[in-house]
User: Fold these one by one.
Assistant:
Number 1:
Amino acid sequence: DSGVTQTPKHLITATGQRVTLRCSPRSGDLSVYWYQQSLDQGLQFLIQYYNGEERAKGNILERFSAQQFPDLHSELNLSSLELGDSALYFCATSLAGGPTDTQYFGPGTRLTVL
Amino acid sequence: GQNIDQPTEMTATEGAIVQINCTYQTSGFNGLFWYQQHAGEAPTFLSYNVLDGLEEKGRFSSFLSRSKGYSYLLLKELQMKDSASYLCAVRDLSGNTPLVFGKGTRLSVIA
């Protein structure tokens, strides 16, 4: 158990809908990263926050957004969902988000769009 | 940009040794990570190399050669529970992505 928590564990929804995924970091970690993992793809980096501020942005679609709250938990919002958005969504957290940090992953949310 | 290559699949026998290779091309290399991921579960941290050489941690060792853009993960005394995907990830300071992951190597350990 990494100490990172994610909810919900599973989510089934329909195309066009909007969902929110939640991540709570390990105690003391200030940085949160969001990743998408589809069947044929590796872990694709979406976005990183550090202490409430956006620090790095990957190939995140405009339909997706995220934020990190003052208590350091983070939410990933996915809207106008498409079939291709079905994937495992992981968050990872690290101490300071710096170059030598190790990222520790949460258990993931499996999103199924029907 | 970044490019990370790993074999897609490998099979090895229980009790044996297996070496999983990773080659990478980056312009701002600043460290390489190995993660283990069982199907449907979270990646778990195995090792981190930033300098050339071998890092040993129990049954697992990781090697890095920065001049060759090459790393390997060595698993000794294989156990059935080692059946998993092994992800190579590179930290590249030149890009926007804090950590770039390879697609992973799916290792099957057979009796």
Number 2:
Amino acid sequence: DIQMTQSPSSLSASVGDRVTITCRASQSINTYLNWYQHKPGKAPELLIFVAFNLQSGVPSRFSGSGSGTDFTLTISSLQPEDFATYYCQQSYSTPITFGQGTRLEIK
Amino acid sequence: QVQLVQSGASVKKPGASVKVSCKPSGYIFTSYDINWVRQASGQGLEWMGWMNPNNGNTGYAQKFQGRVTMTRDTSLKTAFMELSSLRSEDTAVYYCASLVASVLHWGQGTVVTVSS
């Protein structure tokens, strides 16, 4: 199975801050990497698919980059509604695997 | 568009089993794998296993081997996940998710509470 290592596991930031979350795969996954936002009581929401494609309806302050084994999710200017937990997920091979999550908290 | 509708919340006693259903729409049911993922309170997403609705092939996370069974009813176009020998640590929200074009589309989640 491909292991996904996400960092940091938690992050405190302020509204307006620029935030970067990283995700590393244990082997190359090309660009088969997705990012999800998860809020309590709701299903995870797709933000970025195939490494750098912004899902329809997702604000442009979210962006993704990377290929191979190293990926990043960047939020250019944090908004109050962005405080949530973020997960990377690889779909290069079965089984799919997730990063451990990054909990983004208000400073 | 792709939508997945899951069955409602359950409360079970320790040692019992729970069976959660998942009905996708917006695509041909047999076309895409269905994964099951859970989240216990305060924990991250935990992948449980997958099923190919076309042939019924399954793959389970080692942690759940022997306790989880994923099936489907192609006439109902519905997938099922059954977890047996429930314990308090199985209290969680259970999600089904279809892997369509390399992206997961999620059900709304089913709360399973295990309590005596």
Number 3:
Amino acid sequence: AQTVTQSQPEMSVQEAETVTLSCTYDTSESDYYLFWYKQPPSRQMILVIRQEAYKQQNATENRFSVNFQKAAKSFSLKISDSQLGDAAMYFCAYLWNDMRFGAGTRLTVKP
Amino acid sequence: DSGVTQTPKHLITATGQRVTLRCSPRSGDLSVYWYQQSLDQGLQFLIQYYNGEERAKGNILERFSAQQFPDLHSELNLSSLELGDSALYFCASSVGWTTDTDTQYFGPGTRLTVL
């Protein structure tokens, strides 16, 4: 069974600083997809970034980047130049046959 | 705005009742997924439809059922509701199957409260 673990229930970062959210997963598959979703207080799920397991290059979307280590089954999210609007729950997700989510990390951004 | 719409936004009902949640996928997307997000269970995959047919099944109760119509919108039917069914129900859509290079785009969710 595929499981996704987010070991940090809560994280805090100062505005304009950088923060890294951790995610590990367990799978026996070689081709799969990984995602980070953001859930602000509005509760909507917003796609932040995606990574295909067959790609060695780490995905980047503006201030968001990932550190994908396939052998270690690790998929961390780095948020640079943190903004107040980044405050939200962040979910790591694994996709092969169906989507599995981690328990989430609540990110607080301090002004 | 992801392009996925869900109605209603909020639903309050009583135990034992039946409700229907509706989802319209993004234009061009053939797959629709349903998820349940509750405080105790987290975010769980329920079921996926692709072009009208059931494609994958997750932790969906027998009291729950779904379908996807020819116009590709989908409905999730919840019956014999229990207090524990109170949750946020998300619909997501993607172009193809989960094993393809697809990203799922989530709708705003329907908050169901069972009293």
Number 4:
Amino acid sequence: QQQVKQSPQSLIVQKGGISIINCAYENTAFDYFPWYQQFPGKGPALLIAIRPDVSEKKEGRFTISFNKSAKQFSLHIMDSQPGDSATYFCAASIRLDQTGANNLFFGTGTRLTVIP
Amino acid sequence: KAGVTQTPRYLIKTRGQQVTLSCSPISGHRSVSWYQQTPGQGLQFLFEYFSETQRNKGNFPGRFSGRQFSNSRSEMNVSTLELGDSALYLCASSLVSQGTQHFGDGTRLSIL
């Protein structure tokens, strides 16, 4: 069972446009929601993250919008550039116990292509 | 500060063999997690080590095992390799705090 559902699977956006990737979850115990960016041949790199007590977080051209009641969160990439072409993964983390152990569940990924 | 280093970058093995992958975490990071990435299943959690102890384990068969050394470096072992084990194996390290994991570039394992 996929703990975090991500859509769309692929996305093509014109340079300068807005890219929007959506994720949804069911487990209300998740308490940390990071987004990762992965280029071919590289490991995922943390892009931006949010905790559920905040509805929006912005870092440069990247914004996370978080809707706790709907159990949804999304990544917005403003002024998309060809260099943003990569696969994006949303994730959700849940603390397991007092030792700090946690499980990080990933969405299935969105392949973004930004056309010049 | 150096990032997470995984070796080797590429491996080719045949069915039935075993393999050991290595991960050096970011200096000061004590938690090391391993993931399997495939086109069909995406990123799946294998296990996590902290202070040389396996603290958390995903839903993988016992053929997948790991360990962590006193310097936080970690190894992952897969025995009796199967064709379906072909994947990119990623290692991630983090501080004690939750959530922020830093990934290496992975080891691409191909099983013939």
